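G.,

No rush on this.
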Amino acid sequence: MIKTELEIFTMAKITMDTYQARYEKAKERRKERFRNLNANYKPGSPLLLEERNKIVPDFEAEIAKARNDLMMEFEDSLMKLRAVETAKVAVISNETKTMMSVLDCLETKTVSVDEYKVLAEHYGGKLYWIDRLLERVADKCGIMDSMVQPPLSVKLEILQTLEQNVREYIDGYDGENKCFPVTSSDKYIYKMEESYTNGYSGVRLDSREQAKRMISKALNEGSSLDRSFVLANMLRTSTPDIQDEMLSILAEKDPAALHDPTMQFTGVKNVVDRFIKTDGELVKAAGVAMKKADNAKSHQERIGILWDNFDNRYLRKKIEERIAATNDEELKDSYENMKEIKEEQKQESRANKGE
């Protein structure tokens, strides 16, 4: 499986978060229009009554449009993914037949866990029907983890549940954050994603995507002590690129955790101290800038805010993630233009220095 096939789960979260943001903005506009009635119109005048009677219908129309647009885009992506997964079942090539003839003999033999692991790593994750055969071998030999993607029926059921969750959230959200706190959480979305892939079997995730899932898992451990120890162990055993990504995400979600006593453990302290010294403020500034940009009253104002902070690599990363998740063409074009201008400025600076 390629990473893009998992983007439907990210899109589900973004769809819910975007609807919430649009709802809140529409609600704020409604309140502002009510507040401005007496300032803009003569009390009791026909114009005031006319304007007042428009406010709630306009709000409801704006919300209905947001709901419809977001669900249409999400359902379109779901339909495409279902088609991709269904098409895999129909692929029975000569390669499939050859591999199945080689592996067929294993169905009557007992395979050890180590032997099965070698087979799954070598043959698994390439062809749908080979994965099904390996699944049967694992089941016969009492091997709990087949290490291959689940069958089509399981995936389609998960996608249906995901679609229902998103629709229920959008249909039911009424401006209260407490509404659907479980099904819209990162923890719940990642759990569905994990089931969809059977523990990410055959999935290639970049360091930031791996870090997101590790942080989500750690922050949802039982007690604060459990969370601290899990985070410390994850940092100690991760590669430097994943360590940096984990710490940048942690600085956004739970900055106090960076100063937890467990972060003073051997093998962790130097990593955390280096991050706080060099990158901690950059992460914080990126979050502030992105929030300001999200609350901008126009696209021009949004781009101005992003441009002023464009040298911050964590902000650039946030912009790239937003573009990937929302397919915001306007933001994408502006981002590419900003990158080109920055590169031209660098080249001009090097030329002036005679480099």
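When you get to it, here's the other one too:
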Amino acid sequence: MRYLFLILSALAFYPATAFSTTIGSYYISNLVIDQQQGLFIRMHNEVLRRISLDSNLIIQPTKRTQRDFKQHKLDAYFPALLENLPKSEVIISDPFYLKTIVLFTKVGSAIKTIDDLEGKVVGVVTGYSYGENITHNQNIKLDYAKNDDVNIARLMRGYLDAIIGDYTSTVAAIENGKHSGLIQYDLDKPINVLDVFYVCHDSIAGKKLCGSINDALEQMKLEGVIELDLASGIATIDL
């Protein structure tokens, strides 16, 4: 009993920031490459350093990461968007990045805003997030395809009135295709801007973890390491 008392006493005084935590992520080109490479990984490692957190990072395909979080095999995961949150109760961190949604139309089209998309057929890619103000708008008919190339072809044939996508994969598909001069878009005027953040469980431990992450993110924003401009959708992480 004496030894048990000593062990419990030692644990009671063990620093709260030195516990072992398992955090998940998933592969994203240039952002999450492996446990040491990628912009989001550098940001994550800096967060851990600032809060002195002993954490195990597990990188898996997206659906497996989300499944393991729901099954409480992960204490948190990143990056996450509101559209993709699990139905169970969760808490989220402050945003550390922004995802911009860009409108693509044929040259000369008058479609410029989300309101203009109402009554139109809009090409999107299965599995991507566009914001609930778009996906939950019953007046916008979303036509799902497996990739941007399919949507571009359907736009040029007149089956779609517009495409919504991002400034990386969608722009690359257009610039590398044969219709680059026939499609217009403005990267400086996204039609939607989505917060990107960590997700934690809605528990005492989860609230403590997300609170610590927020402390680090706030420091990094004050120091200019992370800069987010909601108006333009421009996000920079200087690491």
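The chain has a mean pLDDT of 90. The CA atoms of residues 2 and 8 lie 10 Å apart.

Enjoy the weekend,
O.
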